[in-house]
Amino acid sequence: MTGIRPRLSHLGFYVRDLDGQAEFYKRVFKLLETDRGVSGAGDPIVFLTGDSGEHHQLVLTAGLPPEAARTWLNQVSFRVASLAELQEFWGWLRECGVTPSATVSHGNAWSVYFPDPEGNNVEVYANSDWYVPQPFRELIDLSRPTEQLLAETYESVRQNGAFQPVAEWAARVEERLDALSSTTPH
Question: Cα–Cα–Cα angle for 112, 91, 58, nearest 5°?
Fold first, then answer.
């Protein structure tokens, strides 16, 4: 298995209201339902994607008990290409009647968080050009001009002792991942 690095491609979770959850993700994220059926465990299941190269990116399975206080899910995250696109999506959420629970800068990304109909935490984010250690969280106002938010984020993170361009950080991570790939399992 040396040199093989599996890549995360999709996420699946249990829901109470399969049709309601599927409609939410199709409407808000413009995902396509590629298939629907019954899982091997006998539960109704829906497959959704926003990428023609992936049969499914999100799998919703009925079966979360109504009495369950919460799911095991921490968050479902979707990425957009830029801060400007995130701001546009933030406006789209408001058109959909979805109220964000937080809009934040993580230094390495900007995020808008909101609940889906069953209370699962959903994030839409755009990467920045900078790396700072995580967790890092500052509230931001996505209604402000993009250039202003960029400048404010840069000022808030450049003082951090571990601040660096994300390309430098990514090169170091790639080296570390390559080292892991070249090791032999025991």
Answer: 55
User: Residue 45 class from Cβ within 10 Å (0-12 exposed, 13-18 middle, 19+ buried)?
Assistant: buried
What is the identity of the amino acid at 122?
V
* ∠ CA 135-139-144, rounded to 5°: 135
Domain contains 79: yes
DSSP 8-state class, residue 184: P
Within this chain, do residues 166 and 79 fall inside the same structural domain, yes or no?
yes
In whole angstroms, what is the distance from residue 31 CA to residue 25 CA?
6
Taking phi over 0 as left and psi of -120 to 50 as alpha, with beta for the rest, 54 belongs to beta
3-state SS record for 6-38? CCCCCEEEEECCHHHHHHHHHHHHCCEEEEEEE
- pLDDT confidence of residue 63: 86
Let me know if residue 3 belongs to a domain.
no
Give the DSSP H/E element, type plus range, for residue 151: helix 146-157
Q: Are residues 103 and 16 in the same domain?
A: no
Same domain, 58 and 145: no
Its sign, for the CA torsion 41, 44, 48, 52, is: positive
Distance in angstroms (rounded) separating the CA atoms of residues 177 and 101: 34
In tens, the pLDDT along 105-116 reads 999 999 999 999
Query: What pTM does this model have?
Result: 0.80
